[in-house]
Write a structure and sequence with these properties.
By secondary structure, the chain is of the alpha/beta class. The protein is built from eleven helices and 14 strands. Strands 3-2-1-4-5-7-6 form a seven-stranded parallel sheet, sandwiched between helices. The chain is globular, with a radius of gyration of 20 Å. The termini are far apart.
């Protein structure tokens, strides 16, 4: 069997660079096309991204051209900003290619997307939603699909933390689930912004997009689907950490009855028994961002507070790996019929 030809559009952004770093070591494929939208002329990838300067096996980085992309690729990753990425993803998919879109453009129904993102949705009445690529939760639905919408970074950490509860009757009905989420600065993308300057972010820590973060409806949509509760809501607060990468989610869920840590631990272990990427920590151990940096893993810890009858859930991921590029490659592996862990690391780079 010939190696699938892989393209990355948006190859110079943080998620795009992480994609190429993973794909360049993948044993079953060939990278044949690298493109950036704002590039004016072709150049070597190592010249543009100095970390690849000594890696001479990549194709030249080109200005994006749809016809060349279709001619050179069997599967294409789109790592462009929301508002641009989804439109190109649909064009490439309609031309018969497999596509994984890392933006938010194809994750939500048209009306919901336009309300939360403030952008025109690329979806039309003829378009169906892309398959949502939460690969550790729904591997069977992703296998052999041709259009995948890669989940958001906050959504990935939050959903992996919360979804096992949807299959139980432990949570108080009509409650709002509180999700406190903190991310490194790469989650904001590569475009220069004053609040991301070192002098502004260093020794600093603050919330942003309070009450209006675009990952809120994405998380609610999946939780409602799995729980069959159309009115389930979350209160998501996002905060910016003075670190480059990593996410810590802390969730607070009211319980309707007494439950032991052992019972909850078993529920979570059973939910993720067939994926190597999600680890449920033993009682009294707490996840650390440093432990997952550079790896496509998610570490989850549980704590039952019997005094307040609350469940506390803590989860960490690398926002550029499990929250973006790593999960996208995991989805690609499932789409192409390969073991989901192929080419991906289970070991973080700490310290």
């Amino acid at each position: 069997m010939n190696q699938p030809r892989i393209g990355v559009v948006g190859a110079t952004g943080y998620a795009g660079v992480e994609l190429i770093r993973i794909l360049s070591r993948h044993p079953l494929l060939k990278i044949t096309y690298l493109a950036a939208q704002k590039l004016e002329q072709s150049e070597t990838y190592g010249h543009k991204i100095s970390a690849f300067r000594q890696f001479g096996e990549l194709p030249a980085l080109e200005p994006f051209d749809l016809e060349r992309c279709l001619d050179l690729c069997d599967l294409v990753f789109l790592a462009l900003p929301s508002g641009i990425s989804g439109r190109l993803a649909l064009q490439i998919h309609h031309a018969g290619k497999k596509v994984i879109d890392l933006s938010g453009d194809l994750r939500l129904p048209k009306e919901v997307y336009e309300s939360w993102y403030g952008l025109a949705s690329p979806l039309t009445q003829k378009d169906t939603h892309a398959v949502y690529g939460l690969s550790d939760w729904q591997a069977e639905q992703i296998a052999n699909q041709s259009l995948i919408s890669n989940p958001g970074c906050y959504a990935t950490a939050a959903l992996l933390s919360l979804l096992p509860l949807c299959q139980t009757k432990l949570v108080e009905s009509q409650s709002v689930w509180v999700v406190d989420a903190k991310s490194g600065s790469t989650g904001a993308g590569k475009s220069p912004q004053p609040h991301l300057l070192l002098s502004e972010l260093s020794n600093n820590f603050y919330p942003y997009r309070v009450g209006c973060h675009q990952h809120t409806p994405e998380i609610e949509q999946k939780l409602q689907e799995e729980s069959k509760q159309a009115d389930l809501q979350i209160q998501l607060t996002t905060q910016l950490l003075p670190i480059p990468r990593g996410i810590l989610v802390s969730a607070y869920i009211p319980l309707c009855s007494t439950v032991s840590f052992t019972d909850l631990y078993e529920i979570y272990q059973n939910a993720y028994h067939d994926t190597p990427f999600v680890s449920i920590l033993p009682c009294g151990e707490w996840p650390q961002i440093q432990s997952v940096l550079g790896a496509n893993t998610c570490h989850i810890a549980l704590h039952v507070d019997n005094r307040t009858q609350m469940l506390q859930i803590f989860a960490v991921i690398d926002n550029l790996q499990k929250g973006a590029a790593g999960q996208a490659v995991q989805n690609m592996n499932l789409m192409l019929g390969w073991p989901m862990e192929t080419g991906l690391s289970l070991i973080g780079s700490a310290p």
